[in-house]
From TrEMBL:
<keyword id="KW-0560">Oxidoreductase</keyword>
<comment type="similarity">
    <text>Belongs to the iron/ascorbate-dependent oxidoreductase family.</text>
</comment>
<dbReference type="Pfam" id="PF14226">
    <property type="entry name" value="DIOX_N"/>
</dbReference>
<dbReference type="Pfam" id="PF03171">
    <property type="entry name" value="2OG-FeII_Oxy"/>
</dbReference>
<feature type="domain" description="Fe2OG dioxygenase">
    <location>
        <begin position="218"/>
        <end position="319"/>
    </location>
</feature>
<dbReference type="InterPro" id="IPR044861">
    <property type="entry name" value="IPNS-like_FE2OG_OXY"/>
</dbReference>
<dbReference type="InterPro" id="IPR005123">
    <property type="entry name" value="Oxoglu/Fe-dep_dioxygenase_dom"/>
</dbReference>
<dbReference type="InterPro" id="IPR026992">
    <property type="entry name" value="DIOX_N"/>
</dbReference>
<dbReference type="GO" id="GO:0016491">
    <property type="term" value="F:oxidoreductase activity"/>
</dbReference>
<dbReference type="InterPro" id="IPR050295">
    <property type="entry name" value="Plant_2OG-oxidoreductases"/>
</dbReference>
<keyword id="KW-0408">Iron</keyword>
<protein>
    <recommendedName>
        <fullName>Fe2OG dioxygenase domain-containing protein</fullName>
    </recommendedName>
</protein>
<dbReference type="GO" id="GO:0046872">
    <property type="term" value="F:metal ion binding"/>
</dbReference>
<dbReference type="InterPro" id="IPR027443">
    <property type="entry name" value="IPNS-like_sf"/>
</dbReference>
<keyword id="KW-0479">Metal-binding</keyword>
Length: 369
């Protein structure tokens, strides 16, 4: 029983049989079929229905004349939607392109090559796929690669692909670029929230010690790369189950222009088309807690495309205050004194949130007061 309970989130090695299914079998095996979940989760808004999806422009955030109004726009996106697309983000173009190329080339390799960095038994990092034990061991229609990128001492270099040869350098450079972007964005979020930049940035960046909220290294950055193969029956499978991101701040880059990511709003799914050159910024559960519920983490999922594969590179940033997931103390003084979430130690949070995710629940809901 104990062992079964612990076995909730599983990543598994991708077998030749699964690779053959992804490569275009007409019949979809039962273990991939999610028809009920797809239907029960709500209607998809048609692409031609007009929606004002939030777009924030970093060039405006940095322009002294436009910064205040653009910061307000960023704030309302985080409060009302839980995500936005960011244009003119300033991420080094060469680093971005090398990361896109390396990810696409990696997923394009034969299975045996990819399996040289396969997830180990009971492990989390490496190449594999998600198996959801709580829904009868169903498998997501996706291949994914998970790697801890920060702090540097947490990197498991044995699982960083040596092929394509650009991969390691690309991930290392892109990781630094996205850390810098995250820090900059958090500065504008702090302004919008009326808290000090040190408080919000310090929750995400530290000196490597959980109690040291002053350094420049991200406390934890985890990178996911996903490849969603095309599926002839996209209504029957899911590339990623509906979820909110359990860490603090997510920066998502799409490698191609295949649709697939959908955001939940008002009980319906809104397909998101990434703007050319933009990145998608998503509020995660920990940022929801830090802001005492002012910013909302948003539910999203991925539906594969019938004709084209889709590849994405996603970086998640963890945050804590003196080792606790808790509303920022600055927000609890003065007017809004009532905490909406109880505090929890970061290790307990990690355990609880991954277990809840595997059961299709949101752990943060259990922290609400
Ligand atoms: O691939 C995507 O666009 C979304 C992936 C995602 O939601 C995640 O990795 O948490
Ligand atoms: Fe996500």
């Amino acid at each position: 029983m104990e062992a079964a309970a612990a076995k909730l989130v599983i990543r598994e090695k991708i077998t030749g049989a699964t690779a053959a299914v992804f490569a275009g079998s007409v019949e979809i095996p039962e273990k991939f079929i999610r028809t009920t979940e797809v239907q029960e989760a709500g209607a998809v808004v048609s692409e031609d229905e007009v929606f004002e999806l939030p777009v924030v422009d970093m060039a405006k955030l940095l322009d002294p004349e436009l910064s205040a109004s653009e910061t307000a726009k960023l704030g309302s996106a985080c409060r009302d939607w839980g995500f936005f697309q960011l244009t003119h983000h300033g991420v080094d173009e060469a680093a971005m392109q090398q990361m896109k190329d390396s990810a696409a080339q990696f997923f394009g390799l034969p299975l045996e090559s990819k399996n040289s960095v396969a997830v180990r038994d009971g492990g989390f990092q490496g190449f594999g796929h998600h198996v959801n034990a709580s829904s009868g061991d169903k498998i997501d229609w996706a291949e994914n690669m998970f790697l801890f990128t920060e702090p540097v001492q947490d990197r498991d270099m044995d699982l960083w692909p040596a092929n394509p040869p650009t991969f390691r350098h690309a991930l290392d450079s892109y990781s630094v670029e996205i850390s810098n972007l995250a820090r900059r964005l958090l500065g504008f979020m702090a302004t919008d929230l009326g808290v000090s930049q040190e408080a919000l940035q310090g929750a995400f960046f530290g000196g490597g010690d959980a109690d040291d909220d002053t350094g420049r290294q991200p406390k934890q950055q985890c990178t996911a790369m996903h490849y969603y193969p095309p599926c002839r029956h996209p209504e029957k499978v899911l590339g990623s189950l509906p979820h909110t991101d359990t860490l603090g701040l997510t920066v998502l880059m799409q490698v191609d222009d295949t649709p697939g990511l959908q955001i939940k709003r008002g009980g319906r799914w809104i397909p998101l088309r990434q703007l050319l050159g933009a990145v998608v910024v998503i509020v995660g559960d920990i940022l929801d807690v830090l802001t005492n519920g002012t910013y909302v983490s948003v539910e999203h999922r991925v539906v594969p495309d019938a004709e084209r594969g889709r590849t994405s590179v996603v970086m998640f940033h963890e945050a804590s205050v003196q080792g606790f997931v808790t509303p920022l103390p600055e927000l609890l003084t003065g007017g809004e004194a009532r905490p909406r979430y109880r505090s929890i130690g970061i290790l307990e949070y990690r355990k609880g949130s991954s277990r809840a995710l595997a059961q299709g629940r949101r752990f943060v809901d259990t922290l609400r007061m």
